[in-house]
Amino acid sequence: MADIEQVLNFFANARFLRLLDEAGRRRLLAEAAALTFQDGETVVREGDPGDALYIIVDGVASVEADDMGTARAVAELTDGSFFGEIGVITDQPRSATVRARGVLQVMRIPKARVLEVLKDYPRVRELMAKVGVARTEDTMEKMSLAADLPPSAEGVIPDPEDPHEDPEED
Hints:
The protein is globular, with a radius of gyration of 19 Å. Strand 3 and strand 4 form a beta hairpin. By secondary structure, the chain is α+β, with helices and mostly antiparallel strands. Helices cover about 35% and strands about 30% of the residues. The termini are far apart. Strands 1, 2, 3, 4, 5 and 6 form a 6-stranded antiparallel sheet that branches. Helix 1 packs across helix 2 (about 20-30).
């Protein structure tokens, strides 16, 4: 993003940020840092402190959660999506790892700034909290479903070598 007006325009169209007026977006932007990550780089790591909110400006991010020592992709985020809201709002550690898939450009907004701005926008804070709860529930459901599946079902492809699986069975 080249200048502040372009960034503000992006912020005005980003999913939850469009619920803020221009003054609120400017306040968030005042401490936002533009960051670029290369393919495979970790943006945030599960278990780390939730010290910032991230908004995807350009690119794709993979959200991964730990499943008994194995990283399992649970979501994909694209332009305008945000992440890190759970840690910012609840003071809980990061609930997932987010990695760049290809070149990823994000805006990083420090927790203190987000909380300060959201004090004046309780509806936006409430919506962010609901998104966080929904994401947590979705991740837990995906992890639970994965735990119930045999290893050969990971790609929804039956293992022809397993005598206990019948690919024709529904």
